[in-house]
Input
Amino acid sequence: MKVQNKMNKKLITAEKKENIYSIAQKMKEYDIGFLPICDNKKIIGVLTDRDICIKILANKDFQNIESYISKNIITIPKEETIEEALKKMKKYKVKRLLVTEENKVVGIISLSDIIENTKEKEETLDTIATIFKREIALREKTAEIDSFYL
Output
């Protein structure tokens, strides 16, 4: 199956000049945890709900969102297979990919999109395990740092 058959074509974005409250409101309104951030309609990076909680709120830096935007944008052509999307998610340890057509972003595909009625269950589960191993390792590292100061 191709990425274009599973991707979400409704692309919700935010402009880099928007404040964090506006971005969080969009995430709430559309029930999403990931927003491409644009500068004059050109995507310059992405911001996740986790970025907002862990980076922005924790640093009390509500004005300077640009420094928290992940500029490492991972994309996949819409003609690629779901298997290729899973491989890419696993390799980069991400849950979402921007989908492109002729170097233009035309949608987003997430693990949730793939899981729904997918035949690639084993590869999907393996991808999820790889991503969460990274998150668990990050939490353990934070716990080690926290216990150091106790």
User: Anything to note?
Assistant: DSSP finds five helices and six strands in the chain. The first helix runs from residue 20 to 30. Residues 8 and 108 are 5 Å apart (CA to CA). The chain has one domain: 3-148.
